[in-house]
Amino acid sequence: MTLPVADPWYRTESLDPRLWLITEPHVHPIFSANMHLVLGRDADLLIDSGMGIAPLRPVVDAIRPDPGKPVICLSTHTHVDHIGAAHEFETRLVHPAEADELAAPSPYSLKSADIPAPLAAMFTESGYDPLWDYLVDAVPSADYNLSAYAIPPAPATGLVEDGDMIDLGDWQAEVLHLPGHSPGQIGLWHEESGTLFGADAIYDGPLIFAGAGMSMADYTATLKRLRDLPVKIVHGGHDPAFGPDRLHQIIDHYLALWGAA
Ligand SMILES: [Zn+2]
């Protein structure tokens, strides 16, 4: 089977003068995660690094006004769609609960048939499109080898926990530990603008809460915590950004679904 070539692989979009969204339009929607790039005075911040199917660093450096400036790669958790290109960055932050996975990522296949049946069933039941033959509908180059896909180790150079601050000199955000979807799931809270980077704890699409390493009890506490934040905008790990009304709708929906309202 030959897939078409998609070049460029990544789509980039400026959301405001200092915030960029990078996506992989040719990855299946359930694995197509958002990467956010925040431009700072002393350093830039990349929140998540996608599937690692095509080199990401050149794309990030092309956006950065000063590619010589340090760039921090923060992995919000270590699912395959968030850590693929972490190894391309010198500074790599993650929560301690997921540091082992970042240092030695589990093998993963781009072939949908290789996805364990219970996981595949959960994806379909949670409302996502049927899986394609592969997790991609294109390749980044004609000589790309789908079966050689693997995530290179990217041992953390620093660990971040709840309450830690990410400081770009003129932009500071607080690390929120938001377990549930994964044990070391973190988000970022930029209080000054009321911006929440919700990662896979909260986004405007089917939330994934039942699988290996997931906990509905933890997820319930996480959603209740997010409900109380004075949020103005949420940039999630998947799907488009949304505001506080939608945030509360999503939270109330899942808490009711789980009998935890
Ligand atoms: Zn995830």
Automatic annotation (TrEMBL):
It comes from the Bacteria. One of its GO terms (molecular function) is hydrolase activity. GO terms for biological process: antibiotic catabolic process. Pfam families: Lactamase_B. Keywords: Hydrolase. Residues 32-238 form the Metallo-beta-lactamase domain. InterPro entries: Metallo-B-lactamas (IPR001279), NDM-1-like (IPR050855), RibonucZ/Hydroxyglut_hydro (IPR036866). Belongs to the metallo-beta-lactamase superfamily. Class-B beta-lactamase family. This is MBL fold metallo-hydrolase. It comes from Thalassovita mangrovi.
